[in-house]
Amino acid sequence: TEAPVKIAITGAAGQICYSLLFRIASGSLLGDRPIELRLLEITPALKALEGVVMELDDCAFPNVVNIEIGDDPSKVFDGVNLAMLVGAMPRKAGMERSDLLSANGAIFTGQGRALNDVAADDVKVLITGNPANTNALIALKNAPDIPANRFNALTRLDHNRAISQLAAKVGVPVTDISHMTIWGNHSATQYPDLFNTLVGDRVAADVVNDQAWIEGEFIPKVAKRGAAIIEARGLSSAASAANATVEHMRDWVLGTPANDWVSMSVPSDGSYGVPEGIISSFPCTVTDGEYTIVQGLEINEFSRARIDASVAELVDERDAVTELGLI
Ligand code: NAX
């Protein structure tokens, strides 16, 4: 029998994981491959996590061969092949950005070191917890023995949001949209690029043919969708974030569809003038478990300015966590 894939998930008693764990366990990630879940929480949340595990047990999912929980990353991450780092410290009222970065820095330095010490050699690490790109950079820098390209951050939710908004605008099913790209940071500065996106076989920006809509409605709507969900639901997006986390990891492991790409935040190799040393969102394809940044796309003047602005924010965050001694 096949050895189970060991999957670590952090923040396992939280909102996103209440959806994510059941998607993974039911086969949305790896189909019917056997899996073992390794769930990490902080000590006060372990009781709640036990309740979530009771519910997982009650689903009697055939592919789940074992579930372990704990509050010590060096135990929970032991031998893991995939790690989804969802748990993070949310920004609270009155919190400065530097407070947020240091609170999360403490989490992601420790988890980076633990992965470095005990994860399987083939580990892939996906960071969903915010600020996701910079948290991923902190984890990567604290895991010197793991290749840098095994650390990704999530911009797939933004990617999916952009597809959905565009499809609604031009009145086509989402399956008619391809080659969407989110560039930059998972933040309000992110840039969803309609100049390389296709609607059928036509450039989306030409189909829309309305630069005012692109700048004044589309981009802000995608970038501020998280806030709109909070406004409507009273809670931040969870099921859609879980879905995006599953899709990113599934595509990273099993490959992207032919003739399309997805948005992944990956360590920059200098492509498209994005400086090395930050984790930024790019159009990527995946074959045999290795992603490649799509090369040769045209970047017009408008796109250039938007990408540069988001990248500048990532460079600022990198500088801030460097100053705090986190990387
Ligand atoms: P919740 O607050 O519901 O859950 C987070 C859980 O993480 C809590 O149970 C907490 O105890 C746990 N946790 C905190 N520190 C931990 C640590 N050191 N080790 C293990 N677990 C720890 O938040 P939820 O709504 O699930 O969101 C989780 C994270 O995803 C947040 O940082 C949120 O900002 C981020 N998001 C990222 C998105 C993205 O597209 N990249 C979109 C959705 C979401 O906003």
Automatic annotation (TrEMBL):
The lineage of its organism: Bacteria, Bacillati, Actinomycetota, Actinomycetes, Propionibacteriales. NAD(+) binds at G11, A12, A13, G14, Q15, I16, C17, N104, Q111, T128, G129, N130. HAMAP family: Malate_dehydrog_2 (MF_01517). It catalyses: (S)-malate + NAD(+) = oxaloacetate + NADH + H(+). It comes from Tessaracoccus antarcticus. The gene is mdh. One of its GO terms (biological process) is malate metabolic process. The active site is at H186. It comes from the Bacteria. Substrate binds at R91, R97, N130, R161. GO terms for molecular function: L-malate dehydrogenase (NAD+) activity. The keyword Cell division does not apply. Catalyzes the reversible oxidation of malate to oxaloacetate. PROSITE patterns: MDH (PS00068). Residues 155-322 form the Lactate/malate dehydrogenase C-terminal domain. Keywords: NAD, Oxidoreductase, Tricarboxylic acid cycle. This is Malate dehydrogenase. PANTHER family: MALATE DEHYDROGENASE (PTHR23382). Pfam families: Ldh_1_C, Ldh_1_N.
